[in-house]
Amino acid sequence: MQTLVSSPTYIATQGQPLDSTAKAQQRNKIIYWSLTVLMFVPGTLGAFAEAFTNGPASIVKIMIGLGFPLYLMKILGVFKIFGGIAILTGKLPRMKEWAYAGFAIEFLGATASHFITGDVKYSLFPFSFFVILVIAYLLWHKTAATPLPFELRLRGLSRAGE
């Protein structure tokens, strides 16, 4: 028999049932953090190998195959480290916005690079990461506890127009 306290639909601190909005908010947070951790923890750790070593052999092979200089891997690796930290910690919302934009540019650039060089099958791989990134970004906006920088400006503009 399930008790009210052990039910997942009750808030442990208040003992009150969650309404449908709170359930959706909780579900969105779980999905957001699952996608974020699955995507950015390995990506950020892999970026250390790109930035501070000669890179994983598979990445080196891809970079050479696409015609990119290998030093670009080190530059992207450093940016991925900072972007991953910004997204995973979330301490600076504006920096987090820039990190999402940077990863979007990277994933779309990788998609285009593979597509243009004739590696159409492999272009789906970075594009799928872009789709996951967009979903995580939208969920972040839905679940953000603090207003994001552009939302503050929009609220100020809407009040000024009233």
Q: Can you describe what's shown?
A:
This protein is mainly alpha-helical and 162 residues long. The protein has one domain (25-144). It is 75% helix and 0% strand. The chain is built from six helices and no strands. The chain has helices at residues 20-52, 57-66, 71-89, 93-116, 120-143, 149-160. The radius of gyration is 20 Å and the shape is elongated.
Order of SSEs: HHHHHH
Mean pLDDT over the residues: 82
Count of the separate structural domains? 1
Report the strand count. 0
Helix content: over 70%
Strand content: under 5%
Q: Which shape, going by the Cα principal axes?
A: elongated
Low-confidence parts, pLDDT < 50 over ≥5 residues? 1-13
Structural class: mainly alpha
Give the oligomeric state: single chain
The main β sheet shows up as: none
Q: What is the number of helices?
A: 6
Cα gyration radius (Å):
20 Å
Terminus-to-terminus distance:
54 Å
In short:
This protein is mainly alpha-helical.
Give the SSE layout.
Layout: H1 20-52, H2 57-66, H3 71-89, H4 93-116, H5 120-143, H6 149-160
Helix pairs in contact: 1-3, 1-5, 3-4, 4-5
Kindly list the characteristics that best describe this protein:
single chain; 162 residues; disordered N terminus
